[in-house]
Amino acid sequence: MGWIARKLKTQLSVFNSEFIRKVDEWIWFRKNAAHLKREAVNCKTPRDFFGALKRSPFVTLQKEAEIVGLLELIAELRPERVAEIGPYDGGTLFLFSRFASPSAHLFSLDMDLGFRRWSFASLIRPGQRLTCLVGDSHAESMRDRLVKATGGKPLDFLFIDGDHAFKGVKSDFQLYSELVRPGGLIAFHDIIPGAPARAGNDSANPGGDVWKYWKQLRDSFHDHRELLYEGPDQEGYGIGIIRWPGVSI
């Protein structure tokens, strides 16, 4: 066998292995999503749904007291259009869908959704729609794709939990906040510095620089709040929320 044939055989073997792994992941995701949805049938409150999610294999990166508080606000808003930058493995998508409108259109933006792009739809409620957009959220072209996907209609709720670098979170806010309707909500995750950041070692801070940008941004908005599981001295986490007034600040 010549070297070209051997190389092709090796590449084919790698492709087949990767394909099988993707199929296995897809089956795993769909199976566990179905189980989670069955558990959710008997859930009523934000705490109920969070508990069901915590008992599932899906990972959520938020603290209970914080995300439950956010879900209560979403329940009051009953958003028709929800966009999330940085959906991870879909835990927050599942939660947001439970308190959005029954006919809501949800949008997940990420650099690489992989197999999740075809599996996330199994997490939302019947009657809702999901659009996954893969690409760099910092690019204006990505913002334009979202505008096209919404049909030019404004967002009711925007959750920013993607790039945690100062420049990255600032870019996400500046690009997508203008798509939120007046009175809509914009939320940020990881607004409290962790121990490394408090000690001056920003590079080791798992929450990145979101807290720096939030600290700079929050006082520009009259209607803002912070959801914290322990208080301002807690180690990291935290969700910051602003009600969008519809003007540039």
Please render the helix and strand layout as text.
Layout: H1 3-40, H2 46-54, H3 64-77, E1 81-85, H4 91-99, E2 105-110, E3 129-134, H5 140-149, E4 155-160, H6 166-176, E5 180-189, H7 195-198, H8 210-217, E6 224-227, E7 239-243
Write a brief caption for the model.
The chain has 249 residues and is an alpha/beta fold. It has helices at residues 3-40, 46-54, 64-77, 91-99, 140-149, 166-176, 195-198, 210-217; strands at residues 81-85, 105-110, 129-134, 155-160, 180-189, 224-227, 239-243.
| SSE pattern, N- to C-terminal | HHHEHEEHEHEHHEE
CATH C-level: Alpha Beta
Strand content: 15-25%
CATH topology: Rossmann fold
Overall pLDDT, averaged?
88
- Poorly predicted runs of 5 or more residues: none
Query: How many beta-strand elements?
Result: 7
State the strand order across the main sheet.
3-2-1-4-5-7-6
Give the count of structural domains: 1
Question: How large is the count of helical segments?
Answer: 8
What is the CATH H-level superfamily?
A: Vaccinia Virus protein VP39
Helix percent band:
40-55%
Structural class given helices, strands, pairing? Answer: alpha/beta
